[in-house]
Amino acid sequence: ALPILKGRRHRLQYKKKVNPELQVEVKPSIRARKIQEEKMRKQMQKEEYWRRREEEERWRMEMRRYEEDMYWRRMEEEQHHWDDRRRMPDGFHHGPPGPPGPPGLLGVRPGMPLQPQGPVPPRRPDSSDDRYVMTKHAAIYPTEEELQAVQKIVSITERALKLVSDSMTEQDKNKSKEVDDDKKELIKDRALKGVLRVGVLAKGLLLRGDRNVNLVLLCAEKPTKELLCNIAEYLPKHLAVISPEKYEIKCDVPEAAILLSSCVEPKMQVTITLTSPDRKST
To answer: Among 31, 141, 227, 253, which is most buried by a count of CB atoms within 10 Å?
Structure first.
């Protein structure tokens, strides 16, 4: 029977004096241990390097797809804008007149010229600062769901305000048939002249979590409480024509604004503020 051998030194002495065939594990030296540790450390560094390489490649592919989506979304939005402008009668417009068309919700990313002039210089490799900035940008950039929700509610609101303007103009024309010819000229213009995107919506600076955007409704004359209430009264009917979804509408008389909120997630709110060029003189 094999005796109880407690330690490695004991086993070595037993092998030397009694049983040369006894198997005793070899204890690595300090140098061999350091070589092994260095080899493992290099292996881990190599695995970390390839893992980060794959993540960066995946990130570049996602950013490339994102840039292409933003480019085509802006092209489609501008096309819709000019199609609407061609179909619109004179007097009511979305945004400032004349080319170029309005930018998209978040504009165009830097480094993405629509029509680059001359030869394109070679792109320098991304530095650690570039990757850090792009990571931070991805963290604050709105999600696709938020972008779609903002685009939808803004587009529906602008179209509904256009219909409200048409309805009020039609009512004014009907009233003009009942008054004298001398007064017809006073009511021939539209009461609502146009709607503009302002703030972060116009500048393309929406951040993740932003749920409130602003529009400015231009009126022919100084806005009144009666005009504000009339617009808020007309809006639900025209919103129902454009979209089957439900929207909540509130009047904020002290701010001369109408608050239009969606009832589905993600819930967005559009603040429509009434103003007039006549306010410049006050």
So the answer is: 227
The crossing angle, in degrees rounded to 10, of helices 30-87 and 128-140 is: 50
Alpha-helical regions (H) of the chain: 8-17, 30-87, 128-140, 144-176, 200-203, 225-242
pLDDT at 88: 59
Name all contacts of 14-21 with Cβ < 8 Å and 24+ positions apart. Answer: none
Residue 23: what pLDDT?
77
pLDDT of 119: 57
- Give CB contacts under 8 A, 24+ apart, made by 125-132: 126/56, 126/60, 131/56, 131/59
Widest Cα–Cα separation across the chain: 133
- Could you give the CA distance from residue 265 to residue 146 in angstroms, rounded to a whole number? 9
Q: Are 232 and 206 in contact (CB under 8 A)?
A: no
For the chain, the residue count is 282
The dihedral over CA atoms of 19, 20, 24, 26, expressed in degrees to the nearest 10, equals 160
pLDDT at 102: 42
| DSSP code string of 150-195 | HHHHHHHHHHHHHHHHHHHHHHHHHHHTTS-GGGGGGG-S-SEEEE
Report CA-CA distances (Å) from 23 to 11, 20, 184: 9, 8, 115
Q: What is the pLDDT of residue 122?
A: 60
Distances 34 to 24, 25, 38, 48 between C-alpha atoms, Å: 22, 19, 6, 21
